[in-house]
């Protein structure tokens, strides 16, 4: 899979893209992340990317021209890339969006900065969609881009070391992950559930599925609302 990030701060990504499983996925060529400096697509001596807003008001607005020049140049190289503007007003990112992107295989992320971006970037059809990390405002799209890239990287075959762990992840099957326990067996009067120590794997699977369903009902009932539960799951929830 390939990501291209259009940003004013390519160096922001240096250490996160080297560390941990994300770094390994890149080293092993399962994932490539290309950073593009937006200022490289300006035409003036000062490499200007922003200007004061028409109509007045605080802050600066990112200019449409360098962005469109960058995107058109990238599209020439990769005509099929899916171009995403990162913005708090966009479609909310989720595990489902991550899966879509992994299937598409080639994503360009535009990181906004300053107070906003000239609306003509969207109006002119230069982006395929607008996506948000959540209902809060960041200083720019870089933190959002990193979170989204990491979420996608977990879904790439071979990227996780332990492939079994991904299908159990929270949200993978639309519900939360089951609770986990490890040594010691007893901590400050709290026992690990005996079923996990009994060695009966069918029973353990059943218990984990039940706990995942119950936890989801307790913590995120909204996730269950849109779901068609199997008769077996319904029975687990009721028992
Ligand atoms: N840029 C600023 N805030 C953002 C958010 N919530 N999601 C994506 N990009 C952003």
Description of the structure:
It is built from nine helices and ten strands. The mean pLDDT is 96. It folds into two domains: 152 residues, SPOUT methyltransferase, trefoil knot domain (Alpha/beta knot, 3-Layer(aba) Sandwich); 66 residues, tRNA(m1g37)methyltransferase, domain 2 (Trp Operon Repressor, Chain A). It has 239 residues and is α/β, with parallel strands linked by helices. The two termini are 43 Å apart. The strands form three sheets. A five-stranded parallel beta sheet has the order 2-1-6-5-8, sandwiched between helices. It is elongated and about 70 Å long. It binds adenine (ADE). The site of adenine (ADE) has 13 residues, from β5.
Q: Enumerate the distinct ligands.
A: adenine
**H/I helix tally:** 9
Give the low-pLDDT segments. none
Give the tally of β-strands: 10
Q: What are the secondary-structure elements, in order, as H or E?
A: EHEEEHEHEEHEHHEEHHH
Q: Please identify which CATH superfamily of the largest domain we are dealing with.
A: SPOUT methyltransferase, trefoil knot domain
Strand content: 15-25%
Helix content: 25-40%
Mean pLDDT metric: 96
Instruction: From the alpha carbons, calculate the radius of gyration and give it in angstroms.
Output: 22 Å
Identify the CATH class of the largest domain: Alpha Beta
At the third CATH level, what is the topology name of the largest domain? Alpha/beta knot
Strand order of the largest sheet: 2-1-6-5-8
C-alpha end-to-end distance: 43 Å
- Give the number of domains: 2
**CATH architecture level-2 label of the largest domain:** 3-Layer(aba) Sandwich
């Amino acid at each position: 899979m390939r990501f291209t990030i259009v940003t004013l701060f390519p160096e922001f990504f240096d250490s996160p893209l080297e560390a941990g499983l994300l770094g390994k996925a890149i080293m092993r060529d399962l994932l490539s992340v290309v950073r593009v400096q937006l200022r490289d697509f300006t035409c003036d001596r000062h490499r200007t990317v922003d200007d004061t807003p028409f109509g007045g008001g605080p802050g600066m607005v990112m200019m449409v021209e360098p962005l469109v020049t960058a995107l058109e140049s990238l599209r020439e190289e990769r005509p099929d890339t899916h171009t995403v503007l990162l913005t708090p007003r966009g479609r909310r990112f989720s595990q489902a969006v991550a899966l879509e992107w992994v299937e598409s295989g080639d994503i360009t992320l535009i990181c906004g900065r300053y107070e906003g971006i000239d609306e003509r970037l969207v109006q002119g059809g230069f982006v395929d969609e607008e996506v948000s990390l959540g209902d809060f405002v960041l200083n720019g799209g870089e933190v959002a881009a990193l979170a989204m890239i990491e979420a996608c990287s977990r879904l790439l075959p071979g990227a996780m070391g332990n492939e079994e762990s991904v299908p159990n992840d929270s949200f993978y099957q639309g519900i939360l992950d089951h609770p986990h326990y490890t040594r010691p067996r007893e901590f400050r009067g709290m026992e690990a559930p005996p079923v996990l120590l009994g060695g009966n794997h069918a029973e353990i699977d059943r218990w984990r599925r039940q706990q995942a369903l119950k936890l989801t009902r307790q913590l995120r009932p909204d996730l269950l609302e849109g779901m068609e539960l199997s008769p077996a799951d319904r029975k687990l929830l009721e028992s």
